[in-house]
Give the backbone structure.
Amino acid sequence: MIRSALMNVMTAAALKAGRGLKRDFGEVENLQVSIKGPGDFVSAADKKSEKTLFEELSKARPGYGFVLEESGIVEGSDKSHVWYIDPLDGTTNFLHGLPIFAISIGLAREGQLVAGLVYNPATDDMFVAEKGQGAWGNSHRLRVAARRNMADALIGCGAPHIGKIKEHPRFQAEFAAVTAKVVNIRRLGAAAIDLCYVASGRYDGFWERGLQSWDMAAGVHIIREAGGYVTDADGGTDMLTKGSICAGNEFVQQHLLDLIRSA
Ligand code: 2AM
Ligand code: CA
């Protein structure tokens, strides 16, 4: 467990927003059968979650800046701190009644990630990390998996949706290259949770393109504090600006990166 003032603030905000999301998730199932579907309802749930997170974090840490999925950039008077917030990662899952979604909160200080939290209110799974204090999942210390054989590695990925059809050929080539070398592939649909699964050793590695900074900031920090390695798809450290990510332990990350670069 991390007992710090910062983590208390982050956890309290996530639990408050999470209560609302969980309530709304309970309604989604009933809306599947309506002609209009749950689209507008989910969009409102997403915005409500963001409003709660913004208000709670602004109250507790006045002046910090924000990068928010729904509202964009909010400059703060304190130029050295920025929150990266995804109020509902895994929106498509939420919309379809799949309990794989999360609130993701990352904090950067002077441009360096220093804290991360990913919370799935449907399963009550909470992943947190703070610089120098390790990564934790529901009060257990997290460590990336130790596997050093790609043929034993379970690899997660994210696929571009129908609106990004131009990205499909590259994804399919990468998918083929990775499938040929690893034990199998998984695709959950919530990048923040996928990254925590790398941190907890459930996945040996993960890659995805077309993400945003708020999808990744918390998860990147949590993986690093769990002893893992993270780069963008070109092998650099510009994940948050390039929107691509490749993660794993030192061995798997390097081999996975080689596979997707050669695809
Ligand atoms: P979201 O649910 O917050 O949109 C799925 O592969 C992952 O991609 C999810 O984490 C999803 O986050 C993210 N993603 C980023 N941009 C997206 C977009 N424009 N449409 C759908 N998913 C997106
Ligand atoms: Ca997201």
Observations:
- DSSP finds eight helices and 13 strands in the chain.
- Residues 150-262 form a domain with the D-Maltodextrin-Binding Protein; domain 2 fold (CATH 3.40.190.80).
- The chain has a mean pLDDT of 96.
- The two ends are 40 Å apart (CA to CA).
